[in-house]
Amino acid sequence: MVEKVKISIIFDEINLYYMEKDICIEKFAWESVLEIFAFKVDLFSIDEICIGFRIDDEGTYNEINEEMHGYNELLNFLTVQFYGIKENWFSEVAHPAFETNLTSLWGNKKIEEIWNNK
To answer: What is the Cα–Cα distance from 111 to 97, expressed in whole angstroms?
Structure first.
């Protein structure tokens, strides 16, 4: 059986880093974030909560998910790093089950328009 490599996230006041076995495989700067949003991915028998960081007006974004090590710590950090970020959003995204439930949390709310036009 092939072991699935788990990506971890670490962060500081400047960047978010995607780590695989202590090696940074990708990073992005907080200053590049135009919008933060939450959504769900239907994985057949369960849903996975994700956070997206939109970095341009064409819809390019980086994402994290609740299975990544460091996810909960990052959620706490975002309330400090991004003033006015929507709090208490979880149930809005979690329910109803097996729906995307795209929800903008901070910034220039454009992701829903971009997703609807794809």
So the answer is: 21
